[in-house]
Design goal:
The strands form four sheets. The protein has an eleven-stranded mixed β-sheet, with helices on both faces. It folds into two domains: about 25-435, Thiolase/Chalcone synthase (Peroxisomal Thiolase, Chain A, domain 1); about 475-540, Alpha-Beta Plaits (2-Layer Sandwich), CATH 3.30.70. The radius of gyration is 24 Å and the shape is globular. The chain has 18 helices and 18 strands. Strand 9 (about 315-320), helix 12 and strand 10 (about 350) form a beta-alpha-beta unit. The chain is an alpha/beta fold and about 550 residues long.
């Protein structure tokens, strides 16, 4: 891995303020300051936004080499079997029995903190919490199939679902709460809610929250197929008359959260703000897996009361929206009762679902919906919810005062902030809803289609230096070359001073290092190719030896 992510062009606030002592903040809003994802057709948030913006569906036939995920359709990620174990200090023997969900979450955690411009070595020993939603143990099934010869003493923690969060805390040296939440398909949104409350209580000073789901074993696909929830045509027709089930997806999402006052004080780039949320359960519903509109309406009311937001202020809701003939009408009825009825009939509530783009990521689905919503808030554009022709006859959209965003909708800034809701529901009756608002005006700006961009500098120098060193580091030579290749994308669009600043202040330092001085394009190209070039110095940090005094006899 070696984090071949571009540092962007941010010169953020005081690097020493990456983590502040935890203080209770009651109902204080919580800022989202870092993002990462690995989703079908999208290796990072920028790619995910392009997929959403362009109205693409990343669901397809099960690729060669992957077991049937249930039916013959699915949303799959690339490289689920690849992992840079050396970067994370994991031996090959341990890596072989390590659940790829643990591997993926390690990568996403690192990328999310880098995106937040928080160097990993600056948060070691801090009260940073890790809250991850997960519900599958496919790799344990595969390991069991392989038999005793495939198991070693690393397997017990390696295939434990509860260790997914602990693995991140251990690697980064984080001392806050560290837990995996399994609330079925609501898991990752419940994890975000739990992280938010931990920050508000002062239990955590910083938090990583998200979810992960990998579809590796045919057995779990068979279970979903027998349950009767899968779409035979491999499409999620959310709220549509053709709704016939969901299609499985895989991947993961991670978000870095911190109290809004701390984020503003540190000069963080803020993607969005969590105003509040709520979690409840259907209780004694007709069946364990049958949702109820009454319980979903309650969780909506509780969430907006917690957020201090009037129902008529909500402009968009990212649905759980699985495209099932049972679940969709229940969700629509609850939204119409609480939010639709509070609005002018000339301005129906817009709704949509990311499951139409990447499939249903189950434990990670709520995190995907939240990520989509945060990107939409930032870009001022609500992406199209795909595969919609006309409403399910059980969903009277006009009566409920709802409108499916079947086409992209501009979301202009007005005299009130952009506010959205995000829902996720578990098959056992857990209901979760979060209320999200656009970043405040005083926050450092986030701009451009690539999601990450420049923030306000600490202080502009009166004289810009003519030559600025760009300092790169990685755990291996291959990683260093990867860093150089990734950084090439910043050469033309970025301010050299900003990039130089960010590389030094917001990145962890490793043994393999290089410095590029001037001629950044040619220097980075050479470094990426492993070739020598003028203006490029590279090497490996060695052990510090004893002091040597040199007397050259030349007056030095």
């Amino acid at each position: 891995m070696d984090t071949s992510r571009s540092p962007g062009t941010a010169r953020t606030g005081d690097p020493a303020s990456a983590v502040r002592p935890a203080t209770a903040t009651g109902h204080q809003p919580v800022a989202i300051v870092g993002l990462s994802c690995r989703l079908p057709g999208a290796a990072d948030p920028a790619a995910f936004w392009r997929l959403l913006r362009d109205g693409e569906c990343a669901v397809g036939r099960v690729p060669a080499g992957r077991e049937t995920a249930g039916g013959h359709w699915g949303g799959f990620i690339d490289g689920a079997d690849r992992f840079d174990a050396e970067f994370f200090g994991i031996t090959p023997r341990e890596a072989a029995v390590l659940d790829p969900q643990q591997r993926l979450m390690l990568e996403l955690a690192w990328e999310a903190f880098e995106d937040a411009r928080i160097a990993a070595d600056r948060i070691r020993g801090s009260e940073t919490g890790v809250f991850i939603g997960a519900m599958r143990d496919d790799y344990a099934l595969l390991l069991g199939r392989a038999g005793r010869s495939a198991v070693n003493h690393h397997a017990m923690p390696g295939v434990s679902r509860g260790v997914i969060a602990n693995r991140v805390s251990h690697f980064l040296g984080l001392g806050g709460p560290s837990l995996v939440i399994d609330a079925g398909q609501a898991s990752s949104l419940v994890a975000v809610h739990t992280a938010m409350e931990s920050l508000r209580r002062g239990e955590s000073s910083l938090a990583l929250a998200g979810g992960v789901n990998l579809n590796l074993a045919a057995e779990t696909g068979l279970v979903a197929e027998e349950f009767g929830g899968l779409s035979p045509d491999g499409r999620s027709h959310t709220f549509d008359h053709r709704a016939n089930g969901f299609v499985r997806g895989e991947g993961g999402v991670a978000l870095v959260l911190r109290p809004l006052p701390d984020a503003l004080a540190a000069g963080d780039r803020i993607y969005g703000v969590l105003r509040g949320g709520a979690v409840n359960n259907d209780g004694a519903a007709e069946n364990l897996t049958t949702p109820t509109s009454q319980a979903q309406a309650r969780v909506l009311r509780q969430a907006y009361a917690s957020a201090g937001v009037r129902p008529d202020a909500v402009q968009y809701v990212e649905l759980h929206g699985t495209g099932t003939p049972v679940g969709d009408p229940v969700e629509a009825a609850a939204l119409g009762t609480v939010l639709g009825s509070a609005r002018d009939t000339a301005d129906p509530l817009l709704v949509g679902s990311a499951k139409t783009n990447v499939g249903h990521l189950e434990a990670a689905a709520g995190g995907v919906g939240l990520l989509k919503t945060v990107l939409a808030l930032h870009h001022g554009r609500i992406p199209a919810s795909l595969h919609f022709e006309r409403p399910n006859p059980e969903i009277p959209l006009t009566e409920l005062n709802l409108r499916v965003a079947a086409d992209p909708v501009e979301w202009p800034a007005g005299d009130r902030p952009r506010i959205a809701g995000v829902s996720a529901f578990g098959m056992g009756g857990t209901n979760a809803h979060m209320v999200v608002e656009e970043a405040p005006e005083e926050a450092a700006p986030v701009g451009g289609d690539d999601v990450v961009s420049s923030a306000e500098p600490l202080a502009e120098p009166s004289i810009e230096p003519s030559v600025v060193p760009w300092v790169l580091s990685a755990r291996s030579g291959a990683g260093l070359r990867g860093q150089a290749a990734a950084l090439l994308g910043s050469v033309d669009a970025a301010d050299p001073v900003d990039v130089g600043w960010s590389l030094v202040t917001t990145r962890a330092r490793f043994e393999h290092r290089a410095v590029v001085v001037g001629g950044y394009g040619s220097g980075l190209s050479a470094l990426a190719a492993g070739e020598p070039a003028g203006g490029v110095v590279s090497g490996v940090v060695g052990p510090v030896g004893r002091t040597v005094f040199v007397f050259p006899g030349q007056g030095a």
